[in-house]
Amino acid sequence: MTPRIRAGLLALCLLGPAHAAGQPPARPAPARPPAAAPYRDARRPIPVRVRDLLGRMTLEEKFWQLFMSPWDSTDAPGSLAHGIFGLQVRLAGPPADVVRRQVEQLNALQRTLVEDTRLGIPGLMFEEALHGLLAPQATVFPQAIGLAATWDTALVSRVGSAIARESRSRGIRDVLSPVLNVASDVRWGRTEETYGEDPWLASRLGVAFVSALEGAGVVATPKHFVANVGDGGRDSYPIELNARMLEEQFFPPFRAAIAEGGARSVMTAYNSVAGVPATQNRALLRATLKEGWGFGGFVVSDMSATSGPTVLHMTEGSTADAAAHAFRAGLDVVFQGRVHEAAPYLSAIRRGLVPTAVLDEAVARVLRVKFALGLFEHPYANVDSAIHWNDHAAHRGLAREAARQSLVLLQNRGALPLAARVNRVAVIGTDATEARLGGYSGSNAQVTSILDGVRGRAGRDAIVTYAPGPGRLSTAVATIPVDAVASAGAPGWTGSYFASPTLAGTPVFVRRDPTIDYSWTLSGPGPGLPADWYGVRWEGTVTLPAGPARRIGIEGNDGYRVFVDDTLRLDRWRKESAGTHLATLPLLPGTRHAVRVEFREMRGNGRVRLVWDAPESADYRREIDHAVEAARTSQVAVVVAGIEEGEFRDRASLALPGHQEAMIRAVAGTGTPTVVVLVGGSAITMSSWIDSVAAVVHAWYPGEEGGHAVAELLWGDINPSGRLPITFPLAEGQLPLSYNHRPTGRGDRYLDLPGEPLFPFGFGLSYTSFAYTDLRVDPPEARTGDVTIRCVVRNAGDRAGTEVVQLYLRDILATTSRPVAQLAGFTRVALAAGESREVTFRVNRSQLQMLDVNGRWVVEPGTFQVMLGSSSRDIHLRGTFDVR
Question: What is the pLDDT of residues 213-225, one digit of tens each?
Answer without folding.
Answer: 999 999 999 999 9
